[in-house]
């Protein structure tokens, strides 16, 4: 761990941000604010900070969580971090229902979340006084469990659900005409067994980090800041990324034991990202705020691992269409060899079966569309019937879910034997992820301008 993340060097960021060194803060220290506290008391600090110094000064005054990580992923940038930035190993995602109907309160929340996200992704505590420097008789501004931990490459990625725009037939927050057409209500897919308590949400926050405590701390503090304005609808912990988002990363494995993420879109795929991941400005002026953003599809997919574990290796490989050991396609070669769907074996049957997952998911079968997958394994205890509630928390970022997710999911739900016999979708969400935040701006600013 090194010195201040705003002062040091750093590699170029992959979210279009300047390196940490130039991302830029003026560097008012927490100690400086505490000096003010001596004049008016710590309680006055918040008022001074919020009212007189302005948000930049408050942001700059965040207190270091202790050591500052060299592993800081810049929060600011053209795109939000947590999409093409290298996938970390831990996830805590939370969806929130917005309980206030006050537009100003919602904007205030997004500004407060921005300030907290800037602080936490830099390895700092939240608020002007952090976890232990505030008034003794008031709850601390930061919950404290990340003290002594570094930034852990924390990324916080924010998205807006359909319920932010309209709920129970009523437009909300003056956002009529601003809902992007691509932010559809996902259709019911055959076999869906969605739990309403694990589905939907007006806002989503994806927290990814190297350390689960860092990710959990981040969501917890955002929920605390949102008290009285938002309520957690569902949250999901994940471990063991199930995708690579950079060619520098080794392909990880899912809970079926297979390499997952081999043929994922990766940060290095520049032009393809424009084609398949980054959203355009939409057909109407009202949705221009989404240009450069993306759409996040989340699906909680339970895997029937006990049945899988009694399935032969031959059958497992046929279901996936790749070998379990190396991840090579069944048509031959090594992990990154392109699958050949035409080649047949001794019995004239295709080496990659017609119902294999990789065949049905491949761009050739889906009008050329691709997606950037960024999912995680999960286990949430057991179901009381002797089975683990385990699976894959599928996350994908796509340019437009109508073309880049729904048709592929529909085909899988109908024809993919892996999906039909071994998977059950129990939760779901679709969120519009706005472009990145610039210094001095706030999350989703364009939506409110
Ligand atoms: C609708 C999209 C997809 C869902 C849902 C999905 C679920 C799912 N996938 C696996 C395991 C693997 N998937 C692999 C490849 C793959 N999967 C999708 C899409 C969905 N998967 C795509 C687009 C691809 C790439 C296809 C290609 O272009 O070749 C693989 C192979 C390795 C890889 O390329 O990543 C595995 C293994 C599980 C277990 C699962 C649900 C629990
Ligand atoms: Fe897949």
Summarize the structure.
This protein is of the alpha+beta class and 449 residues long. 26% of the residues lie in helices and 18% in strands. Residues 1-24, 124-143 are annotated as: Disordered.
Binned, the helix content reads 25-40%
What is the H-and-E element order?
A: HHHEHEEEEHEHEHHHEEEHHHEH
Low-confidence stretches: 1-13, 18-69
Rounded to the nearest angstrom, the radius of gyration is 23 Å
Ligands bound, unique: the ligand C=CC1=C(C)c2cc3[nH]c(cc4nc(cc5[nH]c(cc1n2)c(C)c5CCC(=O)O)C(CCC(=O)O)=C4C)c(C)c3C=C, fe (ii) ion
How much β-strand is present in the residues?
A: 15-25%
> Overall pLDDT, averaged?
87
How many strands appear in the DSSP assignment?
Answer: 11
Q: Please outline the major beta sheet.
A: 9 strands, antiparallel
How would you sum up the global shape? globular
How many helical stretches?
Answer: 13
Distance between the termini: 39 Å
Structural class: alpha+beta
Characterization of the model:
The structure is a single chain. This protein has a domain at 1-66. The protein has helices spanning 20-23, 30-40, 42-60, 103-121, 212-225, 270-276, 305-308, 313-320, 357-361, 401-404, 406-415, 417-422, 445-448, and strands at residues 90-98, 155-160, 166-167, 170-171, 203-209, 230-241, 294-303, 372-373, 376-382, 388-398, 423-433. The chain has 13 helices and eleven strands. It is an alpha+beta fold. Strands 1, 2, 5, 6, 7, 8, 9, 10 and 11 form a nine-stranded antiparallel sheet that branches. The chain has a two-stranded antiparallel sheet with strand order 3-4. 26% of the residues lie in helices and 18% in strands. The ligand C=CC1=C(C)c2cc3[nH]c(cc4nc(cc5[nH]c(cc1n2)c(C)c5CCC(=O)O)C(CCC(=O)O)=C4C)c(C)c3C=C binds at residues 254, 256, 258-264, 299, 301, 303, 320, 322, 357-358, 361-363, 371, 391-392, 394, 408-409, 412, 423.
């Amino acid at each position: 761990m090194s010195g201040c993340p705003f002062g040091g060097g750093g590699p170029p960021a992959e979210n279009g941000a300047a390196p940490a060194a130039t991302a830029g803060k003026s560097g008012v220290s927490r100690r400086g604010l505490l000096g003010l506290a001596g004049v008016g008391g710590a309680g006055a600090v918040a008022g001074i900070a919020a009212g007189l110094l302005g948000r930049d000064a408050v942001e700059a005054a965040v207190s270091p969580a202790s050591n500052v990580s060299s592993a800081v992923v810049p929060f600011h940038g053209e795109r939000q971090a947590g999409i093409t930035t290298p996938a970390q190993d831990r996830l805590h995602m939370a969806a929130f229902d917005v309980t206030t109907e006050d537009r100003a309160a919602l904007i205030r929340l997004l500004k407060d979340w921005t300030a907290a996200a800037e602080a936490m992704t830099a390895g700092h505590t939240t608020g002007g006084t952090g976890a232990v420097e505030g008034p003794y008789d008031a709850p601390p501004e930061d919950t404290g469990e990340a003290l002594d931990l570094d930034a852990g490459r924390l990324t916080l990625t924010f998205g807006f659900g359909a319920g932010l725009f309209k709920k129970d037939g009523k437009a909300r927050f003056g956002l009529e005409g601003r809902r992007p057409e691509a932010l559809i209500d996902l259709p019911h897919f055959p076999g869906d067994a969605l739990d309403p308590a694990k589905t939907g949400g007006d806002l989503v926050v994806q927290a990814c980090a190297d350390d689960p405590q860092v990710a959990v701390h981040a969501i917890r503090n955002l929920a605390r800041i949102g008290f009285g304005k938002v309520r957690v609808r569902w949250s999901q912990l994940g471990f063991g990324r199930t995708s690579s988002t950079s060619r520098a990363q080794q392909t990880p494995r899912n809970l079926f034991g297979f390499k997952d993420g081999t043929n994922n879109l990766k940060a290095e795929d520049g032009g393809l990202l424009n084609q398949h991941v980054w959203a355009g400005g939409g057909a109407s002026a009202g949705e221009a705020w989404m240009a450069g953003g993306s759409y996040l599809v989340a699906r909680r997919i339970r895997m029937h691992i006990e049945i899988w574990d009694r399935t032969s290796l031959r059958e497992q490989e046929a279901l996936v269409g790749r070998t379990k050991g190396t991840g090579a396609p069944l048509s031959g070669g090594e992990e990154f060899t392109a699958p050949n769907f035409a080649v047949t074996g001794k019995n004239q049957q295709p080496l990659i079966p017609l119902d294999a997952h990789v065949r049905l998911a491949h761009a050739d079968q889906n009008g050329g569309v691709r997606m950037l997958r960024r999912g995680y394994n999960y286990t949430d205890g057991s179901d009381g019937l002797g089975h683990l509630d385990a699976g894959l928390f599928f996350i994908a970022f796509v340019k437009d879910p109508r073309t880049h997710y729904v048709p592929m999911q529909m085909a899988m739900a109908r024809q993919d034997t892996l999906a039909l016999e071994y998977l059950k979708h129990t939760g779901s969400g679709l969120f519009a992820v706005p472009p990145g935040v610039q210094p001095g701006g706030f999350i989703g600013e364009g939506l409110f301008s």
